[in-house]
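I am still getting used to backbone structure tokens and would like to learn alongside you. Would you supply a protein for us yourself, any chain you care to pick? Start from the sequence, derive the backbone structure tokens from it, and show both lines together. Go ahead whenever you are ready, and we will take it from there.
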Amino acid sequence: MKNIIFLLPLYNDWKSLQKLLSKINTQLKKISLKGSIVVIDDNSSFDPVVSIKKLKNIKKLDVLKLNKNLGSQKAISIGLSYLQLKKTKAIITILDSDGEDDYTRIPEMIFSAKKNKNKVVVSCRTRRTEGIFFNLLYALHKVIVFIFSGYWINFGNFSTFNSNNLKRILINKSSSLAVSATLAKNCQIIKLYAERKKRFYGNSKLSLFGLIDHALRVSLVFFPRFILVSFFYIFLIFFLKLNIFISYILVIFILFFNLCLLLSYIRNKSNLFDNNLKLICKKLHF
């Protein structure tokens, strides 16, 4: 399969996108391939300023503008649904448009996806550039998800796969919550490793609240399992007859965490699970 597509969520960061397109073009040139770009514009506040005229290995660029800002996970999910509707036959790569994903790994990920048609190749992060406090919270989030779900999710959006995996990825619509968790839950994974790079321009937009919201969304992908495992842990705590103070602290934490999940579900359920392509209000072709 020679058709190569890159799916990029974006909000206002057109300057970074232009630089990333040049980097993608270089990587495609190295492996003598040409590709297409599909940008999911998450209702940016200004129109795109971007060009592929000098990028010989990028055949075309399509920008799909959403009619409201929905966040990167929802934007990616809508993009995947769009490709599925188009009955796309291609090797698809999802990556962020800000330069934080290591674009030099693109050739390796494409070749691996070609060899493994029924698996998804993901890029695991070996090092992050955020501060110590943020990194500790992120590590805690990964540990909690693993304890309650059994999945160690140390990767983000950066992934490559054959389009025949689209049905599997989108089957339960949970990609609107968190793409990484959905890939872990629904697909067979091949893990590669790369450092998380610094943004091309500006600072990271992920705040502490954003990290907490992301952690809850990842957990919601496994919501039924979280509930069952929580009851099991509560039973185990009292069965083992641990110190009463420790027992109450653990039980309160488990119940509080599940309450947060429930509130997050109620808060987001109205727009998370519907990948309605009517949310695409404009299509631009370059």
